[in-house]
């Protein structure tokens, strides 16, 4: 807010009734300055506003230096074309960054679903392992039960057999009065034999012995699981990118994967370029079959796109876009919903071999020269460095 001063000695003018106390908003100042010549002076570390004759306003902001606007503008050297170019450049960068972040949101959701599936798969593996342990233990339990029950059933069968024999002998004893002495002796001897057989069997199988099944649980499994805080670590890939750029990389292992497809023109293939995108995608170029191939996390070909010429090199442009050189053109390819999609294409009057993207600029080699292009395909500079076959990139 501005408060009008009623008197200003520095102007050497008498007190004017027009300088009445009033409030002037910043909006009023801007609106009035569009229709009047507004000048600013410094007075006692405050800004003094003069517009129409007899009107003075005081700005409630302290300042150390104030210049006349028209004088400041005259001293400025403005290249409007460069200014417009700078504005367009920053707008393009903002749009590019916005598009990248929007694509990143979608990819984060895809990553979430993928990692959720990984966690569920791990749980299934653990369940399968625990089921296998349980089944093995249950088989042991079933085996012991079968052994014990078989032994007990055998004892029951033996008891039933002995009981039947003893009952038969007992019935024979009850009718001894009607038998001869010879028959009585035979029956008595047989009766004593069965009694002795039963007594011997009972001595071998004491009644007081009971079958028992004891389960000694593996405490190590429960102890190990109870000591774990989670099924694994969840790491933010953005944090993992914050590393020392001078860190020495070491090779941990070397693995071979076949990227040949049934639709390939030739039985063989040759990888001429490879590009790893920030979100885990890997794109390779097959110079024999004129294809760009998208690999999944297991390095299996999940998608591809045909190219009109032999692809020599590949580089990353955006988080989901690459550029591929071939013959005398540069083909842009993007990843959309897990599929490779051909985009715009630039034609050049020279061979295109190596390619690199750096700070918004595109660098292409022809074998004998290095060309600097914009992303619109406009030539910026040509550097001749001699014969550089097969390719040279920045």
Automatic annotation (TrEMBL):
Coiled coil: 80-139
Top-rank taxon: Eukaryota
SUPFAM superfamilies per the UniProt record, alphabetical: Calcium-dependent phosphotriesterase
InterPro entries attached to this UniProt entry: AH/BAR_dom_sf
Keyword list, A-Z: Coiled coil
Name the UniProt record assigns to this protein: Uncharacterized protein
Lineage of origin: Eukaryota, Metazoa, Spiralia, Lophotrochozoa, Mollusca
């Amino acid at each position: 807010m501005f408060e009008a001063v009623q008197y200003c000695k520095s102007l050497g003018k008498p007190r004017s009734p027009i300088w009445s106390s009033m409030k002037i908003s910043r909006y009023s100042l801007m609106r009035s300055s569009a229709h009047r010549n507004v000048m600013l002076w410094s007075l006692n570390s405050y800004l003094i506003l003069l517009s129409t004759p007899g009107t003075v306003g005081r700005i409630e902001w302290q300042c150390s230096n104030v210049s006349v606007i028209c004088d400041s503008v005259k001293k400025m050297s403005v290249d409007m074309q460069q200014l417009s170019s700078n504005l367009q450049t920053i707008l393009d960068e903002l749009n590019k960054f916005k598009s990248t972040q929007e694509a990143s949101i979608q990819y984060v959701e895809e990553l979430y679903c993928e990692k959720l599936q990984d966690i569920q798969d791990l749980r299934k593996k653990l369940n399968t392992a625990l089921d296998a342990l349980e089944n093995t233990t249950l088989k042991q339990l079933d085996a012991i039960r079968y052994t014990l029950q078989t032994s007990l059933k055998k004892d029951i069968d033996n008891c039933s057999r002995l009981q039947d024999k003893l009952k038969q002998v007992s019935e024979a004893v009850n009718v001894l009065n009607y038998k001869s002495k010879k028959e009585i002796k035979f029956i008595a001897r047989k009766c004593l034999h069965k009694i002795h057989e039963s007594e011997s069997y009972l001595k071998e199988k004491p009644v007081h012995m009971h079958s028992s099944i004891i389960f000694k649980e593996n405490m190590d499994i429960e102890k190990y699981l109870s000591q774990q805080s989670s099924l694994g670590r969840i790491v933010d890939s953005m944090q993992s990118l914050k590393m020392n750029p001078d860190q020495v990389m070491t090779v941990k292992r070397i693995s071979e994967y076949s990227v040949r497809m049934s639709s390939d023109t030739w039985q063989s293939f040759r990888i001429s370029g490879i590009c790893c995108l920030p979100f885990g995608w890997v794109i390779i170029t097959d110079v024999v079959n004129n294809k760009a191939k998208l690999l999944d996390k297991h390095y299996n070909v999940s998608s591809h796109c045909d190219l009109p010429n032999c692809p020599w090199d590949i580089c990353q442009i955006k988080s989901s876009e690459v550029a591929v050189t071939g013959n005398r053109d540069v083909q842009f390819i993007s990843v959309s919903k897990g599929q490779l999609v051909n985009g715009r294409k630039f034609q050049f009057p020279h061979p295109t071999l190596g390619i690199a993207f750096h700070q918004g600029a595109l660098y292409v080699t022809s074998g004998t020269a290095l060309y600097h292009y914009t992303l619109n395909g406009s030539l910026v500079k040509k550097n001749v460095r001699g014969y550089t076959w097969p390719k040279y990139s920045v």
